[in-house]
Specification:
The complex is a heterodimer of chains A (102) and B (158). In chain A, 47% of the residues lie in helices and 8% in strands. Chain A is mainly alpha-helical and 102 residues long. Chain A has one domain. In chain A, helix 1 packs antiparallel against helix 5. Chain B has 6 helices and 5 strands. In chain B, helix 1 packs parallel to helix 4. The chains are: A mainly alpha (102), B alpha/beta (158).
Chain lengths: 102, 158
């Protein structure tokens, strides 16, 4: 699938996740966040950067991993990215949708 | 939120076997992760999962469980249940599944409401201090039905 965001044609999955992180930039993140009803704050950027680092390190993302992260707690995660924080945050961060059930 | 028509999942956990507790927890947590509301009502033996002293000692059922593929007589021998439980916990840890206590914290932090059943708590003579701090309150089954306050609510008995 193709998606046009911030004037750039992007390759995305059926659910709207970027398939190539190198296509990602901050304008794209702001645009995807807007579609999810989120206005990105400094705190959001910190979390998004951490998520991208985890994915680059090939660490599987999970809600338990958030609890152990030391970056933010689960309550804050839900508050920052309402409506399914792992799903929403990974979409904005331009990384694949996590496959974990936990 | 995705295209799902499920808006709220209400679980009733009535059993204390580890596989049943995890079934409820994984589904309740999975709901929250999809932006679906979720709540768990602990009743009868399900109350073991929210008792501070008991929650880390739940066992897998080795008797009367055909999926264990062992003769019922063998499943009843001393130590077999404990051994099977140990093996299962090991496999769960490999999959990064949290232990019961940590899972309850995760659920609570994720906004999953945790309720104790008034009738069963009275029956087992439990006090508030016997139960986990994360508990949101003690309800009657009628109160719990009233939590099904929107279209797309589903109730599941485990």
């Amino acid at each position: 699938m193709d998606l046009n965001i911030a004037g750039i044609r992007l390759d995305v999955t059926e659910d709207g996740y970027l398939t190539d992180l190198s296509q990602w930039n901050e304008d794209i993140a702001i645009e995807i966040a807007k579609q999810e009803g989120i206005e990105l704050t400094d705190r959001h950027w910190e979390v998004l950067t951490w998520i991208q680092e985890q994915v680059k390190k090939e660490v599987a993302l999970s809600i338990r991993g958030i609890k152990k992260s030391g970056v933010l707690n689960i309550k804050e995660f839900y508050a920052l990215f309402p409506g399914g924080p792992l799903k929403v945050s990974t979409k904005i961060a331009g990384v694949p949708k996590p496959k974990s059930c936990i | 939120m995705g295209k799902t028509k499920v808006k709220k999942m209400l679980f009733i956990l009535s059993k204390a076997t580890i596989e049943n507790a995890y079934a409820a927890f994984v589904m309740a947590n999975g709901a929250r992760m999809e932006g679906i509301e979720s709540e768990i009502f602990f009743t009868f033996f399900g109350l073991e999962a929210i008792q501070k002293k008991k929650l880390e000692h739940l066992h897998v059922a080795t008797v009367g469980n055909p999926a264990m593929h062992m003769p019922t007589m063998l499943g009843g021998l001393p130590g077999v249940e404990a051994f099977a439980t140990k093996m299962m916990k090991k496999e769960m840890e490999k999959l990064d599944m949290p232990p019961i206590g940590e899972f309850l914290e995760i659920l609570s932090d994720s906004g999953c409401k945790l309720w104790g059943c008034k009738l069963a708590i009275d029956m087992f003579h439990l006090k508030k201090e016997d139960l986990i701090d994360e508990l949101d309150g003690i309800l009657t089954i009628g109160d719990f039905y009233n939590r099904a306050d929107q279209k797309g609510t589903h109730l599941l008995f485990i």
